[in-house]
Design a protein that fits this description.
The complex is a heterotrimer of chains A (110), B (618) and C (166). Helix content of chain A is 71%, strand content 2%. Chain A has helices spanning 14-34, 38-63, 67-97, and one strand at 12-13. Chain A is built from 3 helices and 1 strand; from the N terminus they run E-H-H-H. The termini of chain A are far apart. Classes of the chains: A mainly alpha (110), B mainly alpha (618), C mainly alpha (166).
Chain lengths: 110, 618, 166
């Protein structure tokens, strides 16, 4: 990967954006796997969605079309709806089990 | 000509009695059972009359009903045919069968399962008639198997007694061995002649030369002989017949004296063209016959159960018939079938009358002095006795003599053995009769022997008349167009056999009426041979040890324990256990923790991406 | 100049993301997420996505994250406690993720030519007008469907979160 200050070109290589997107996505997955609070897990999911948005926009730039922007827009809309419903569910779970730990929600275990 | 009515009337009787008999009255059951056989007999008479049997001009007549099997080159139709051979059998089966049905009405009057008995009896008539009317080997085999089935059902009629069900099993299983040989013969006939139809097969075989060595014609003949050995109780498959006496006496008379056991004779007589084209098969038939005749007669000398005596007598007489077949005297053999049907059925029915009079006693040692108490039975049984002993001018003399004459022409040693056996036959039959009717009454003093009802003694009387006068029904002349002119033996052969017969009667009279001490003394003096004869030469025990026990043990240990339980169950259960174990293993992935699932998702996603990436040539 | 800007925003984004994963109290995580979104909005601007950048700030950071903060404060659970049992993901998860990142990075380098570069202002299709044009012509159906979706979400959320009516 070309690194400044070795190569100062006007403009940022597109691969950097995509790499950033991957890193953010991996961090989101990490949060999803390693955190135990349900709301934190939810926020990691939002982080993943943001990373994907970034990659959409980056590719939309490359292709010089704004369809990627539209996709991104819809992702945002869906994320909003999902956040609303998901938080409502979390509230219900909290009401029933008095806990926000994801490991406690394990009734499907044998 | 509606030949199909002949077997179907008894079948209708079976259906009606079998399905509705439980609700019918005894009179109704009798009417159906006897009536169906009576109608069948009348129809036989009408048919034979129309075909010209009674004025000696019967030619073969065929009726085709429908094609039963059509598969490739195999074409088997349901055909009934009447020729002279079938005509003789039809008369015997329906006529004697009718008399026995009437007798059974009286004999079974106090037995349970009344309707079942008559239903089975009618079913038996149906199968026997199919057997003799069939125009191809497959229909014959259907009847063959069917009479075996009915024999099993009727022998085991008193199914609550173990010895009866054992006897039924034994009859069926031993018959099966014969049937196996028969089936192989049918397969070979199909293979070599391309058809199972009698006309086609015999037409083809007539055009072939006589086979000098053992070839496939001989093979077919010998396999047919195996089948006949099973059904007609010859050596070595005769062991079921004495045990079959466990069934009711009318069954013994009908099935094991007059009709079913003669099916083997019928089959060989029918297949005569095949046998005649093999140089050695007929010899073997004759040897089997004479050996059986002699062997069974020796066993009959010492039996104490009246029905067993007559059973061994049947085996012995069947041996004579085989001798007749084997020496080429087919018509003599058929003649003897007819006369034997008369006097043997009479002997059995008379024995049944005695047993009925004594309320179930069958042991000769507990009978005696019954002549005045049951006179009709006594007289008719003595008629049968002189017939079977071959005393002229009664029926047995003509038929047995024809066979012995043919035997002498074939091989003199057979004649001498046959004559000696005739003497033994006369001896043991009259021994039984003297022990039963003469002397002091040795039985239970509380019994009051009484004569049988008319439904029982009228058939006895008719059969007695036939036994005495049946010799004048000239069957050999009737069968000349099929089997050629009957042999005329030299006169001295006749004298010797008659002398032997009379001698046997005399010795029996001496032993059992005049001086009863003599047979006891002889039994003690020759106690070794006597014990062997009394125990039927231990043949049953021998079969048990060599055949039955190994089969049962092998079946239990090898086939059941190892093959079935370990291998088959092991595989099937093992499949289940394996699936269960795998399921257990896979179950651990379902931990119930969301983060675990998330981990799986990520892992899977990475795998997919890696795969796609590598495929795309990363 | 573009590169420097990008690096600043990228650094902020990554640091905030790491913070989100590492912090124990959910409120801290929520605030870190807001930081990520803000920096992402800057990056979008660099890529020519004016409308999206604005939407990100208004909708995501302004509405959704506010909702999150509301719920966190409502439930008021406090810091996360130590895990009682360690699942297999805690051991295998980190290596897996590193593998994942390396894989995708490799893929990206493989597919995209290295000369592709982003210059501020090179893409002008991200204006509100252009987006609006596309949105109401080619993507009209998805647009309408998402409005229905939002309606459903509202109804669902209300049904789930209300008190039981006795």
């Amino acid at each position: 990967m070309p690194f400044p200050p070795f190569q100062m070109i006007a403009g940022v290589p597109l691969t950097w954006y995509l790499t950033l997107s991957v890193v953010l996505f991996a961090l989101g997955v990490a949060g999803f796997l390693f955190r135990r609070n349900i709301i934190t897990v939810f926020m990691s999911i939002e982080l993943m969605l943001n990373a994907v948005n970034l990659s959409f926009i980056a590719f939309s730039y490359k292709l010089k079309q704004n369809d990627g922007h539209i996709f991104s827009f819809f992702v945002m809309v869906v994320a909003a709806a999902e956040a609303a419903v998901g938080l409502a569910i979390i509230l219900t779970v909290f009401k029933n089990r008095q806990t926000l730990e994801i490991d406690e929600v394990s009734s499907l275990k044998d | 000509m509606q030949l199909w009515l002949i077997p179907l009337l008894p079948l209708a009787g079976f259906a009606l009695n079998g399905l509705f008999g439980r609700r019918l009255s005894k009179a109704a059951i009798n009417a159906i059972a006897v009536g169906s056989v009576l109608l069948s007999f009348l129809w036989v008479l009408k048919t034979l009359n129309t075909l010209g049997a009674f004025n000696g001009s019967l030619t073969a007549y065929n009726e085709h009903y429908y094609t039963w099997i059509q598969s490739g080159a195999l074409n088997i139709g349901v055909d009934f045919a009447i020729d002279r051979l079938t005509a003789v059998w039809l008369m015997i089966v329906t006529g004697v069968g009718l008399l026995i049905h009437i007798y059974a009405v009286g004999y079974m009057a106090h037995e349970g399962g009344y309707y079942r008995f008559f239903a089975y009896l009618n079913l038996f008539m149906f199968f026997m008639l199919v057997l003799v009317l069939g125009a191809n080997y497959l229909l014959l085999f259907v009847g063959w198997e069917g009479v075996g089935l009915c024999s099993y059902l009727l022998i085991g009629f008193y199914f609550l007694e173990k010895f009866a069900t054992d006897a039924g099993n034994k009859a069926f299983i031993v018959n099966r061995i014969g049937d196996f040989g028969f089936s192989l013969a049918v397969f070979l006939i199909w293979t070599h002649f391309g058809s199972l139809d009698f006309g086609t097969v015999f037409g083809k075989v007539q055009g072939m030369p006589v086979e000098p060595n053992v070839g496939w014609i001989t093979a077919i003949s010998l396999l047919l002989l195996v089948g006949a050995t099973g059904k007609s109780a010859q050596l070595p498959l005769y062991v079921w017949l004495p045990d079959a006496m466990a069934g009711p006496t009318p069954v013994s008379a009908l099935i094991h004296a007059a009709t079913m056991v003669t099916a083997g004779i019928y089959m060989i007589a029918r297949s005569a063209p095949i046998f005649l084209h093999s140089a050695s098969a007929l010899d073997i038939v004759a040897i089997v016959g004479i050996a059986t005749a002699f062997f069974a007669a020796t066993i009959g000398l010492a039996q104490t159960d009246i029905k067993k005596v007559f059973a061994y007598s049947t085996v012995s007489q069947l041996g004579y018939m085989f001798v007749g077949l084997g020496t080429g005297a087919f018509s003599a053999s058929v003649f003897h079938v007819m006369t034997h049907a008369f006097f043997k059925a009479l002997l059995f029915l008379g024995a049944g009358s005695v047993i009925h009079a004594l309320s179930g006693e069958q042991d000769l040692r507990r009978m005696g002095g019954l002549a005045k108490k049951i006179p009709i039975t006594c007289v008719t049984l003595f008629c049968a006795g002189v017939a079977i002993a071959g005393v002229p001018p009664f029926s047995g003399f003509f038929s047995k003599d024809a066979i012995l004459a043919a035997a002498y022409e074939h091989a003199p040693w057979m004649y001498w053995l046959g004559v000696f056996t005739a003497g033994m036959t006369a001896f043991y039959v009259f021994r039984a009769l003297f022990l039963c009717f003469f002397g002091e009454y040795r039985g239970d003093p509380h019994l009051h022997p009484h004569e049988s009802p008319p439904s029982m003694w009228i058939p006895l009387a008719i059969l007695a008349a036939l036994s005495l006068g049946g010799g004048y029904i000239n069957i050999p002349k009737f069968l000349t167009p099929m089997f050629g002119e009957p042999h005329e033996g030299e006169p001295w052969l006749m004298y010797v056999s008659v002398a032997m017969g009379l001698g046997g009667i005399l010795i029996a009279y001496l032993f059992y009426v005049v001086a009863p001490a003599i047979p006891e003394g002889l039994a003690k003096a020759f106690s070794g041979p006597y014990r062997w004869i009394y125990n039927k030469f231990y043949v049953d025990e021998f079969y048990d040890a060599t055949v039955v026990e190994p089969v049962i043990d092998g079946s239990r240990e090898l086939l059941w324990r190892i093959a079935d339980v370990r291998m088959i169950d092991g595989v099937v259960n093992g499949a289940g256990t394996t699936a269960s174990a795998m399921g257990n293993l896979l179950r651990r992935a379902q931990s119930g923790y969301i983060r675990d699932y998330a981990g799986w998702v990520v892992g899977g996603a990475i795998l997919v991406i890696a795969y796609l990436g590598l495929k795309g040539g990363l | 100049m573009d590169a420097v800007l990008f690096l600043i925003f990228a650094a902020i984004a990554v640091v905030c993301a790491v913070n989100l994963v590492v912090q124990t109290h959910p409120i801290a995580s929520a605030l870190s997420l807001i930081g990520v979104m803000g920096s992402l909005a800057g990056i979008y601007l660099q890529l020519g996505g004016e409308f999206i950048a604005a939407a990100q700030l208004v909708v995501y950071a302004g509405a959704i994250m506010v909702l999150f903060v509301f719920v966190i404060m409502l439930l008021n659970e406090g810091k996360e406690r130590k895990a009682k049992r360690r699942l297999w993901v805690t051991f295998a998860g980190l290596p897996l993720l590193l593998v994942f990142v390396a894989l995708i990075h490799n893929l990206i380098l493989h597919v995209l030519p290295p000369s592709d570069s982003v210059q501020f202002g090179a893409f002008t299709g991200g204006t509100a007008g252009a987006i609006g044009m596309k949105l109401f012509t080619a993507y009209l159906l998805p647009f309408e469907v998402t409005s229905v979706l939002i309606l459903i979400a509202i109804v669902g959320a209300i049904v789930l979160a209300r008190k039981e009516v006795d």
